[in-house]
């Protein structure tokens, strides 16, 4: 069957695109959404049921549709959640809101496009001579689209080393995907835990452990030993920043931002002022400067940019000050067993010294893998047929300023777009809801406009 639009994916990007398609396309249009995730649209982050797992963006900036900015806050109020736009809602509530928003749009049976949800995995792709891209599905079917939107996210990053030296009886105590929260029930209150990675996922898992009654020691190992900072309880007004006046080098930009931070009462004002202009700033940088940023500045950018809710930060800081959570900076070199426990061997940062952390459990919180072609069989095949090309820095695939995919060998007029993490090479800041929702709306507007011109 041939559709006007085929959306490939089942995460937040896919649901944002689908909602915009329902709002913007005429009743005569046909849309297919391909995805095999049973929690369509909620993804890993928004399926958690723990109340301590909060959004790290205030509720007032989390509406699914950018032209309805108060939508999420109004939804919270309608469910009896007394929250203001500046408060940080739970991730589980946000997942329910996303689900309800899609359901509400689908309930409008009249005067909306046809939407077919196909529970399958897209296993291959080929161009057809009826001006479409056809997808081979894991269930044996094939569907084709005149427009295609790739909304493929990324999975949990693999362990930095192979636990080949860990005996089978201890392998079950290595948690490779921490978002499968069933492991928490198996941890005894007094057992020790070693967490690899010190980002937002680490904080989520530390608080989840405490909520499940864990009272043992938690060691955190990461390359630099840095942890995310907190949002201010009373946010400062964002500082107006003209990115066109900033230097063109990473070192020059950092020097300028440090100067501005020293001239304000709260450095968050600088980061929040820079936030709306981050994509513009990224696109001004040369490939060399982008690579320099990824090599040297990214960890410091992450802890200042991706902050946690104030009360969550206070809970975590208390555990650190008490010595319950201890940080180690170094590079993991080995995983082995010692006296019935796990032993994580690491090289201490800045030295040649090898140290070790003994723990009853080891949890992989190194974050999400960087978006790219290698993690997806579908993208590998599309690359083999030269329908897509990798970003030179490994940040997804190449797209233009409208999010249209730049393939080296495109022979048909089928329009192929990407939304979300796959477009980080072009936009950098494109993994958070405020960015993805704007991108999704713009892509659908482009598709709707092209369709109207074709039908005119």
UniProtKB/TrEMBL annotation:
This is NAD(P)/FAD-binding protein YdhS. It comes from Rhizobium viscosum. Residues 6-154 form the FAD-dependent urate hydroxylase HpyO/Asp monooxygenase CreE-like FAD/NAD(P)-binding domain. Transmembrane segments: none annotated. SUPFAM superfamilies: FAD/NAD(P)-binding domain. InterPro entries: FAD/NAD-bd_sf, HpyO/CreE_NAD-binding, L-asp_N-monooxygenase_NS-form. It holds the Pfam family NAD_binding_9.
